[in-house]
Amino acid sequence: MARIVVIDDDSLARDRVTATLRCYGYEAASASNGTAGVELVQEYEPDPVSYTHLRAHETVLDLVCRLLLEKKKEPCTKH
Question: Among 38, 39, 43, 17, which Cα is nearest to 28's?
Fold first, then answer.
């Protein structure tokens, strides 16, 4: 089964999504913010990532670039 990380600052939503994923047999882990989420993604090495809360002035592209750069992949540039 897929390994999934859920990152959401809403604890109720985060817990419900994580519990539902586990109920369906997925390996799921969660974090409450982007910083903790990046650390969890690096440690847990999930397949997909569900992320609904961005830092101030951060876009999804910023998050993806940060994850890739911190994993020491090819650097990406924002357009």
Answer: 17
